[in-house]
Amino acid sequence: MASTVGQTITCKAAIAWEAGAPLSIEDIEVAPPKAGEVRIKIHHTGVCHTDAYTLSGKDPEGAFPVVLGHEGAGIVESIGEGVTSVKVGDYVVALYTPECRECKFCKSGKTNLCGKIRATQGKGVMPDGTSRFKARGKDLLHFMGTSTFSQYTVVADISVVAVTPKIPTDRSCLLGCGITTGYGAAVVTAKVEEGSNVAVFGVGCVGLSVVQGAVKNKAGMIIAVDVNDGKEAWARKFGATHFVNPTKLSGKTIQEHLIEMTDGGCDYTFDCTGNVGVMRAALEACHKGWGESIVIGVAAAGQEIATRPFQLVTGRVWKGCAFGGIKGRTQLPGLVDDYLNGELKVDEFITHRQSLDGINTAFDQMKEGDCVRCVVDMQ
Ligand SMILES: NC(=O)C1=CN([C@@H]2O[C@H](COP(=O)(O)OP(=O)(O)OC[C@H]3O[C@@H](n4cnc5c(N)ncnc54)[C@H](OP(=O)(O)O)[C@@H]3O)[C@@H](O)[C@H]2O)C=CC1
Ligand SMILES: N[C@@H](CCC(=O)N[C@@H](CSC=O)C(=O)NCC(=O)O)C(=O)O
Ligand SMILES: [Zn+2]
Ligand SMILES: [Zn+2]
Fold first, then answer.
1. Do residues 285 and 255 lie in contact, with contact meaning Cβ atoms separated by under 8 Å?
2. Roughly what angle, to the nearest 10 degrees, separates helices 49-56 and 359-366?
3. Catalytic residue status for 352
4. Catalytic annotation on 321?
5. What is the Å distance from ligand 1's center to 351 Cα?
6. Cis bond before residue 65 (omega within 30° of 0)
7. What DSSP designation does 286 have?
8. Which pLDDT score, from 0 to 100, does residue 125 have?
């Protein structure tokens, strides 16, 4: 086959032309990578609620037309000038939380957020301010620095990590967001201690991954909270010790119930729903003096969180994290090793599969209660 290096590639992508409309599968032109950039042949991508959230028009940063997708894995097709961190043929996972190792954030040792390209990433363009995508003669925007709903994508070299080809791309793609986010929130951000009591609100891909992290750190009670009774079996399969459906409590709130169950409140709670009312309940279910509540869910534009300041005065801590607090280039290969050693569940999250042509069905399935993750075969 003729080399594509340095050439514009025409391939298929799922394009979001406008908010609220189905994605359109059509030809897209993908320009070669410029200096410091990497072009990836995407093999598989997961579909995350954040893709649906931006497509819905509720994301204050959402702009159209755009190529969505941020949970993707594939092979490096070509690299731009000066790229040394990956090479052609490497198996890679795209990173919506980049890691430059040079900026104030990366050097702080306090966060996994990286400031180097955040401004251009939020505007939907590459670090030089331009797009590598064109369709119907128009430039398309990039999304979260990754745009994995295209058969080929271009990312900054700090937005990609090479992983061993021993992990199939239909599994490694899920480490690009959902699994890493929940697992990292428990293990890296909260640093759940042995014997501590944990409540996880929302038992989707992210919540199940929090449960998995809490099990890894030998938590005591791991209480899964979900409005969907069908999630109890899932939660227990991943190691939850208790399940509560808050809609079935009579005469008391979920926070009161959890405080009773844990003799004073949870050591750690996690919001994995994106519902600001749930975030409040999660904070107020924490133990006085030290309980920490981690916000993971993404809430719609205009939504705000509230509680009595007294809840914080009396020692409860409210914090949040993106990508679980995991530094992708440094820590993702270790998660891959954990998977290969049988210490990290990944296969178990895949409940649905689609081809690129079926990606709109993947969005529909994601909103049904029995879908944990749908993996899309991009080729
Ligand atoms: N901070 C970050 O870096 C990231 C954040 N996210 C965000 O995390 C959130 C979770 O993602 P994901 O796991 O994929 O989502 P899912 O929709 O799969 O899981 C959410 C679960 O919460 C349940 N739920 C809804 N309302 C309530 C409620 N009031 N109380 C308890 N449970 C409730 C849902 O039930 P039902 O089945 O009935 O809908 C569902 O089971 C999303 O907001 C997503 O955007 C995702 C990845 C990264
Ligand atoms: N753009 C939105 C916020 C969306 C958001 O919070 N994204 C998370 C990842 S969610 C993944 O599925 C994130 O990484 N946030 C940190 C960041 O720097 O974007 C808005 O403007 O509200
Ligand atoms: Zn995501
Ligand atoms: Zn950085």
1. yes
2. 100
3. no
4. no
5. 16
6. yes
7. B
8. 98
273, 280, 350, 364: which to mutate for ligand 1, most atoms within 8 A of CB?
273
Q: Is 184 close to ligand 1, i.e. is its CB under 6 Å away?
A: no
> Considering 11, 106, 205, 272, which one is annotated as catalytic?
106
Copy the structure tokens of residue 107. Answer: 């050097």
pLDDT given for residue 2 in this prediction: 84
| Ligand that lies nearest to the alpha carbon of residue 106, given by its number in the listed order | 4
Give the pLDDT confidence score for residue 1 in this predicted structure.
74
Ligand in nearest proximity to the CA of 322: 1
Percentage of the chain surpassing pLDDT 90? 98
The C-alpha atoms of residue 79 and residue 97 are separated, in whole angstroms, by: 20
113-144, pLDDT tens digit by residue? 999 999 999 999 999 999 999 999 999 999 99
Q: Distance between CA 195 and CA 115 in Å, rounded?
A: 36
Ligand 2 atom with least separation from CA of 71? 12
Q: Which of 103, 253, 351, 371 is catalytic?
A: 103
Q: Is 59 in the pocket of ligand 2 (CB under 6 A)?
A: yes
Q: β-strand 268-271 against 222-225: which pairing, if any?
A: unpaired
Q: Contact, 28 vs 67, CB < 8 A? A: yes
At residue 69, the pLDDT reads 98
State residue 220's pLDDT score.
98
Active-site residue, 77 included: no
Give the domains, in start order, of the chain with CATH numbers. 9-179+325-377 (3.90.180.10), 190-320 (3.40.50.720)
Residue whose structure tokens are 């490694």: 172
Q: Which atom of ligand 2 is nearest to the CA of 50?
A: 12
Residue 185 contacts by C-beta under 8 Å, 6 or more apart in sequence? 206, 209, 210, 213, 270, 294, 296, 321, 324, 325
CA 301 to ligand 2: nearest atom: 22
